[in-house]
Amino acid sequence: MAKQTVTVTLTVNGETHTAEVEPRLLLVHFLREHLNLTGTHIGCDTTHCGACTVLMNGRAVKSCTVLTVQANGATIKTIEGMAENGKMHPLQEGFHVEHGLQCGYCTPGMIMRAAELLAKNPDPTEDEIRWGISGNLCRCTGYVNIVKAIQYAARKLREREQAAAGS
Q1: pTM of the entire structure?
Q2: CA angle, 137 as apex, 133 and 138 as ends, to 5°?
Q3: I want to staple 79 with a disulfide (CB 3.0 to 4.6 A). Which of 24, 54, 108, 114 is the partner?
Q4: What is the C-alpha R_g of the chain?
């Protein structure tokens, strides 16, 4: 018996992809195995860790529990799509400058979750940041520098917006 497949079309990091996939293929596996976007990490496969977080239509989702067929027609952004014109996104820069990572395994998912947070709330308090990233786990850092990294990015994004408004 032949495997059943479904045709899906997704826009990932600005590029449209059409593929035949099995209906049970998880989005994380599609991104990693079909598109070679390995920045999206597989941690727990149960939504607990958040290492697989990507943006789907602007919303942070844990791609280990989203079927690729559920993402049909969606716009997906992964960590590989965060850089702008060859420069790190302010969140990536913040994690570097503020030492918001140690082993780095959680970092892509943490950045993607923080991207949604800052899109909704450009000036979050420390408590709002901690609540906003509460679904993403880090085993190394204790979160202090992750919070500082997100605060750094929020500041940079606000400065960028103010500069654009002034010109």
Answers
A1: 0.94
A2: 110
A3: 108
A4: 17
Tell me the pLDDT tens digit for each residue of 118-162: 999 999 999 999 999 999 999 998 899 999 999 999 999 999 999
Using a CB cutoff of 8 Å and minimum separation of 24, what contacts does 21-24 make? 21/68, 21/69, 23/67, 23/69, 24/67
Provide the token pair at 57: 């239509």
Return the closest-CA partner of residue 117 out of 81, 159, 146, 84. Answer: 146
Read off the tokens for 29. Answer: 């596996």
Cβ–Cβ < 8 Å for 67, 26 = yes
Q: Where are the beta strands (DSSP E) in the chain?
A: 6-12, 15-21, 53-56, 59-62, 75-77
